[in-house]
Amino acid sequence: MIYPRQLLRMLHIQRVLLKHGLDELVAATHLFRPLARLRRIPGLGIRRAARDQPMGVRIREALVELGPIFVKFGQALSTRRDLLPREIAEELAKLQDRVPPFPAEETHRQLAAAYRQPLDTLFARFDDAPLAAASIAQVHTAALPDGREAIVKVLRPGVRAQIRRDVEVLHSLAALAERYWGEVRRLRPREVVREFDTTLMDELDLMREAANAAQLRRNFEGSPLLYVPEVYWDWCRPGVLVMERIHGINIGETAKLHEAHINMKRLASNGVEIFFTQVFRHNFFHADMHPGNIFVNPTDPEQPQYIAVDFGIVGSLSPRDQQYLAENFLAFFNRDYHRVARLHVESGWVAPGTRIDAVESAFRTVCEPIFNRPLKDISFGQFLVRLFTVARRFDMEVQPQLILLQKTLLNIEGLGRELYPDLDLWETAQPILEEWMRERVSGRAIVERLREQLPEVGETIQEFPQVIHAILQRAAEGRLQVEVKHPGLEPLREELRSGRRQRWSTGSGAALLVAGVLWVGLAATPAALGWAMLGAGIVLLALSRPGNSS
Question: How far apart are CA 406 and CA 383, in angstroms?
Answer without folding.
Answer: 12
